[in-house]
Amino acid sequence: xxxxxxxxxxxxxxxxxxxxxxxxxxxxxxxxxxxxxxxxxxxxxxxxxxxxxxxxxxxxxxxxxxxxxxxxxxxxxxxxxxxxxxxxxxxxxxxxxxxxxxxxxxxxxxxxxxxxxxxxxxxxxxxxxxxxxxxxxxxxxxxxxxxxxxxxxxxxxxxxxxxxxxxxxxxxxxxxxxxxxx
Length: 182
What we know:
Blueprint: E1 2-6, E2 17-25, E3 29-37, E4 46-56, H1 61-68, E5 74-86, E6 89-102, H2 114-129, E7 137-139, E8 142-147, E9 152-153, H3 155-167
Antiparallel strand pairs: 1-2, 2-3, 3-4, 4-5, 5-6, 6-7, 6-8, 8-9
């Protein structure tokens, strides 16, 4: 991980401070986190952009087994987010992407119980169904808003955007560079 800190001050006359963190997420995904801090505010006041690409999904298998009772044999993960924290509120979005996902692999899963194999085949089918054909990725975009102590994401928006990405309008990877309020 590399961290670059520039112009970090507690005086507004010095301008904005910036932090850039680069590294590899889960050991494989090139990652860039950029933050811009506005000094001398009574509450946190900053913008945060996160970009994670080409992370091997197999590196998530321990978490996937623990929380989803499933593992993957291949695929990549990407994640993009812009968040703004100002006046005790969070506003922004998160966009996760899953590409070339293979859940069921007869060789990898040969020793699993029949019910587990069936479960993984169903998950594989759902993944294939939700894949956007031109982009070949399962993706969604969800707004994140609310107080700093408890920001919320809308579950229905997540589901609607999954369906929109699959059948109507591809969600594209990348930071969207939404307008910033100073």
